[in-house]
Amino acid sequence: MLVAITHAVSPNLNQCELSHIPRQEISFEQARAQHAQYEQVLAELGCQVIRLTGAIDMPDSVFVEDIAVVLDELAIITRPGAETRRAETSVIAEGVSGFRDLSRIDSPGTIDGGDVLRIEKTLYVGNSERTNESGIFQLTGLVEPYGYEVVPVPVDGCLHLKSAVTQLGENTLLINQSWVEASVFVGRHLIEVDPEETHAANALLVGSEIIYPTSFPKTLARIEEEGFSVHTVDMSELQKAEGAVTCCSLIFRR
Ligand code: CIR
Asked: Alpha-carbon distance 64 to 29, whole Å?
């Protein structure tokens, strides 16, 4: 059984952090409806969806992925790179604590969960504007005892590692090579995003099914051509907050 922790969309979403895209008016009502649809697809794919609400005043609290790294053996509560997001951690810690023992990233370390791409026992960790060397060092110390290898990955031009590369299947990744070096992933099958769809590398793998935004039809065609089973969701409003499909849930085995 998979659990998917989500957080309700904040009415303050328009005050979200933005790093790489210009600010646009976000429709709260539409964002909320799109988020509910996303949760419904998670439920249809067999997840027990647990929607938290405790950080509802915090603009970016819908993006739960950044606040924890949940592994089978433990969960790491991050110290987000954006100071405005650090108060989100207590609500997520409480939500995850029923399922895992918790460890934490301490100052001066920073990690955003959007920078952590787990493939089996390898954690690729983006060294980004949000995740620093101290954070990566601390994370390594916490997970190595459980047999994980941490691979730091330079990220340039986008918010997180998972803006640039995500997993589609056992050994297949979706990648935008202008933001991350493909050589890091040697031995893996890479599908490149369509050059006209720079933000298209973020797909959410749930079991063997993929959740993917409707907004990147050319890249979607590439993914489907390779035989993957894709469920599309309209994420237009959350994308205006620099969100994507992986950021809106924490998915883990019960
Ligand atoms: C932020 O800048 O922190 C939010 N506006 C967006 C976070 C998106 N998170 C993610 O991709 N993991």
From this structure: 19
Q: Is residue 16 within 6 Å of ligand 1 at its C-beta?
A: yes
Whose tokens are 């005043």? That residue is: 57
- Please give the Cα distance from 5 to 159 (Å, whole number): 22
Q: What is the pTM of this model?
A: 0.97
Please give the structure tokens belonging to residue 153: 């990955």
Is the distance from the beta carbon of residue 243 to the nearest atom of ligand 1 less than 6 Å? yes
pLDDT digits (tens, 9 = 90+) for 185-235: 999 999 999 999 999 999 999 999 999 999 999 999 999 999 999 999 999
Amino acid at 250: L
Q: Which residues contact 229 (CB under 8 A, 6 or more apart)?
A: 208, 209, 210
Q: Does the beta carbon of 86 lie inside 6 Å of ligand 1?
A: no
Q: Which residues of the chain have pLDDT under 50?
A: none
Whether the CB-CB separation of 101 and 74 falls below 8 Å is answered with yes
- For 27-123, where are the alpha helices, taking DSSP H only? 28-44, 89-97
Ligand 1 atom closest to Cα of 202?
Answer: 11
**Which H helix or E strand runs over 64?**
none
Q: How far apart are alpha carbons 186 and 189 in whole angstroms?
A: 8
By the 8 A CB rule, do 17 and 63 touch? Answer: no
Which ligand 1 atom lies nearest to the CA of residue 114?
12
Q: Which residues are catalytic?
A: 160, 247
